[in-house]
Amino acid sequence: xxxxxxxxxxxxxxxxxxxxxxxxxxxxxxxxxxxxxxxxxxxxxxxxxxxxxxxxxxxxxxxxxxxxxxxxxxxxxxxxxxxxxxxxxxxxxxxxxxxxxxxxxxxxxxxxxxxxxxxxxxxxxxxxxxxxxxxxxxxxxxxxxxxxxxxxxxxxxxxxxxxxxxxxxxxxxxxxxxxxxxxxxxxxxxxxxxxxxxxxxxxxxxxxxxxxxxxxxxxxxxxxxxxxxxxxxxxxxxxxxxxxxxxxxxxxxxxxxxxxxxxxxxxxxxxxxxxxxxxxxxxxxxxxx
Amino acid sequence: xxxxxxxxxxxxxxxxxxxxxxxxxxxxxxxxxxxxxxxxxxxxxxxxxxxxxxxxxxxxxxxxxxxxxxxxxxxxxxxxxxxxxxxxxxxxxxxxxxxxxxxxxxxxxxxxxxxxxxxxxxxxxxxxxxxxxxxxxxxxxxxxxxxxxxxxxxxxxxxxxxxxxxxxxxxxxxxxxxxxxxxxxxxxxxxxxxxxxxxxxxxxxxxxxxxxxxxxxxxxxxxxxxxxxxxxxxxxxxxxxxxxxxxxxxxxxxxxxxxxxxxxxxxxxxxxxxxxxxxxxxxxxxxxxxxxxxxxxxxxxxxxxxxxxxxxxxxxxxxxxxxxxxxxxxxxxxxxxxxxxxxxxxxxxxxxxxxxxxxxxxxxxxxxxxxxxxxxxxxxxxxxxxxxxxxxxxxxxxxxxxxxxxxxxxxxxxxxxxxxxxxxxxxxxxxxxxxxxxxx
Lengths: 289, 440
Description:
The complex is a heterodimer.
Chain A: H1 22-29, H2 43-62, E1 77-81, H3 89-94, E2 98-103, H4 106-116, H5 120-125, E3 126-130, H6 133-137, E4 144-150, H7 159-169, E5 170-181, H8 185-198, H9 215-223, E6 227-238, E7 243-247, E8 253-260
Chain B: E1 13-19, H1 23-33, E2 43-46, E3 65-68, H2 70-78, H3 81-88, E4 91-93, E5 95-100, E6 106-110, E7 118-122, H4 123-136, E8 141-144, E9 149-153, E10 167-171, E11 176-184, H5 191-195, E12 200-216, E13 224-230, E14 233-239, E15 244-252, H6 253-261, H7 264-276, H8 283-299, E16 313-316, E17 322-331, E18 335-336, E19 339-341, E20 347-348, H9 356-376, H10 384-411, H11 417-432, H12 434-439
Helix pairs in contact in B: 1-4, 1-9, 2-9, 3-4, 8-11, 9-10
């Protein structure tokens, strides 16, 4: 069953068995050098840190009993999938985590590496790799305490496979954080027409409405692949103030926190355990992240 | 700690460098050093002067004192400095009486609950406490004494980086530092502000302040701060103990030179005369003022307070007389990418409101709050995003106070009847109106 994930030649672009979409890769290559302009094309992603970093940080702190507020994520291994120029990897690294950022676009990784290179703390804590998620699965089985996939799942070719890979590289009871965009009429009007074509909040052509993911579908896929969904919360961007806030409604942007079930799968859902090709290693029970 | 980059040429990198080790710079470094989210961060404080030992306080009071507001006391408490100050010496005051030389108009301030309105503390006492608290966080804060910063190199905007994104600081002895955030606390002639090319609106008043330590004629419950507006400028008596007070007399440069040069007896006479004499009163103003007062007492019987008499002065501490020129200044920007200004570097104000150092401590409380949140969010400390929040909050607060102080200074610098009448009635009205008084 593992043959599905084995590659003899490492390629940055997709094959038919990858969750990486080659058209998407090309789109991001053009903007690789724009990542770190806080007022530029990626301004909305920069300001999203103001809510997604506290969301990740506080969720992890609430699950832990032993931390220091000067270095709250110390000792936690995080995988940032689709890290882009490292906008989210850097703050997580500054908070003490060991971060591995992966992205299929080599130019993004180059930008990310260059940006962190002047800060010795980040050089130590954050590593980048040009790779798809599938390509690291083999060497990273159950390696990470946390996976962050922020503004990524709306770009992947095969969402279910992506989730299965996440499960494979995540330790039992590890956390998965996702932020993405819902597939609604509203998200078409505001997320594509207004955001891309009219106001230029998002570079044009970044998103395809067809690939947006409704939270119900995401939850279903997560629950049927060994995850227990703990939190789903709407997010709202205010283009006038340039800032994000939490919202009641998930019709536009939303965030999800899910936890991979422990080794002796204490099942949270009533569905039968998945019979697809996820190998559950029998990790020692009772390990607390 | 050893520099973390193996390349020998790279200067040590700090998270925050505070330039200027006066009361405001030292307090900024101490507050950050005690912040839990800065536990693993590296802070440097640059002070041009040598380290002063404050092992024991001299019996004589120092002639440089500050009026510390309760808000500032809270800030100093948060970094553990207030306890030291209390164990050294300070004088709480409960009341402030402010009146005009040209009329009977008077305004008194006091808190309803008879709490302390503020504290008169010698600047040396504050510095001693802050030095102790900096020693306590030596793991976080490295203090560089006798280290004057002579040059700054600013980074290019963050996204166009092949060169170092940090601020480069060059010291007089050739040593270099790098920092993610530079805080300029280097006074009203701030080098940081000038090198950052931040425009400063400034104005030299045609006044100097004369300071001295005075001994009162008789011991008294010395818990009132007195200020009288003379046509030449305000004279203030700030309590130090039951028998001593500190003088701050703002007056013309020439008069200030005279005051500092004259013999001690004449000096004491000048002070007493300034507080007690009525030669600037005119019948017209007195009558108009009295009429207004009776009008108020009809509408609001409690609106005219009892006038207390200021203490009289017997003698001045020899060699405690000094003078310094006064001016006003306000930086058009408090922040830039990787730079923030606090204290007199950002704003300079006339001492008549007793606010100078309190504005600086207010800057610290606000900036430390934003930096602490930024650190806990894993943000780049030098990012304009949170620095601008600090600037907006503080400019909003400071500009109105500085403008009001400037207006008051000008309003009270004249004997012209219409303006005297205006300010007389204004003062009387303000004294009668609780909401306005409380705001102040």
